Amino acid sequence: MQEETGKTHQEALFADVAPLLAAIGWLESRASGLLKPRRQGGGPWWLGRVKVTKRREPAGTVAIIATWNYPVQLLGIQLAQALVAGNTVTVKPSENAPRTQSLLLTLALESGLPRGTLTVLPATREAGERILRDYRFDHVVFTGSTAVGRTIAASLVGTLTPTTLELSGRDSALVLDDADPKLAAKCIWTAVTINAGQTCMGPRRALVHETVYPQFVAEIAKLASKARPRNVVNEAAANRCHELAQASLRMGARDATGTLAEPLGRLVRPTALLDCRTDHEVVQGDHFGPLLAVVPVANLREMLAIHRSVAQHLVTSVFTKDKARARDFVADLGSGIVMINDVMVPTGHPGVGLGGRGASGVGVSRGEEGLLAMTHPVWVTESNGLIRRMATSMNPGLVRLTGRLLGWWYGGSARDRSPVSTAGQEVAPSRTPALAQAPTAPLPLSDTFDPLPDPTAAPAPIPLARLESDLPPALPSGEGAPTIQAAEREQPSGSPSA
Fold this sequence. Notes:
This protein is α/β, with parallel strands linked by helices.
């Protein structure tokens, strides 16, 4: 990992290996309980003694198209969940971390998996293009950019193949007027610099209330002055960060360290741009590297408007001493994960699912929801003879009696009514539970901000190639591809094709 992705030893251990180990331990202790058959209670009296059992059956064949930025954590957890749920899995490793993921998958193959359970394709771009063109799967898991995610979704729409698309976020860290500016600056800067800022859940902008803005700026400037250059995935990513920073400086922003350093190949110095305005392109966060836009704001309404003007929401942080206040507007943030007084680190909890909405993805990976996504529910009913009477002719008097009984049972009878005067009307209580209180209406946004981009504005679908009903053997290894070989396939008699 250190050689292929530029991680430090500490980052590789604590951000990749440790979360995977925690997730495996979590699955060992909880998966059997989550996947076991469950009796469904609460059946109506008029069905008689009908036994209903809900089962979780494997999705079938699962494809995982892996990413490079957290090559052990993300692929490892997705693979473990798919296997624990009982699926056969085909993995296309990332071409940016072939040796790291080759080692991980070799360990998986040598761990005692049944033959045919895991197939590994070459870590090449060509294999990525062929995996969905030539193969047919029951579920596809992809982690990567929104642009590629849209292409994958378009290629699978003809077969209605379910997907889990873990795409990038371009999220915010909100620093409210009562926040601890030192704590906020430290947490946010850690998230900007870890893994050279190449984290889908890392903040792209800090929206800081003007009351604490001076203190926040002073603290983050101290941290930025100590930052060392980091390697990003390629020169294009480095140049993108530098170009956005230069454009913002020309429009009046300030570099927290006083001078903007030129990138050297893949090497980028982590940068905090102060005094950014909403018309600065860098505020949109369309980059993948250690670059943070710091925006002063007057109130929470303005924070939410700026935050929601960007279509990709995955993980959002809120800094405040009043945690209840932060919980009140969680729904307005539109993110799958909301962290109060922290950034990124709490997502290492193995029970936390990761899932975006709209341009940030479809479905959930990790945690309980991620495990269940690797299955499909089946309800098994077992009936006695009583229910069959409904399919035969019944005595008309019995039908009328049953109708009155249904009206009494679900609607209440005259004897049960307790008149309560409300503006001259009588309200009768129901036998059914009261409805939950309606949620509070979302905080209205200022008219001075543009509406959210149209999430339906996706590229035209790519044409579908012929799909085969059976999964063929692994693609032949190309030059420079990992030497790992696919596990031998066995097809039990009478089982569906793998």
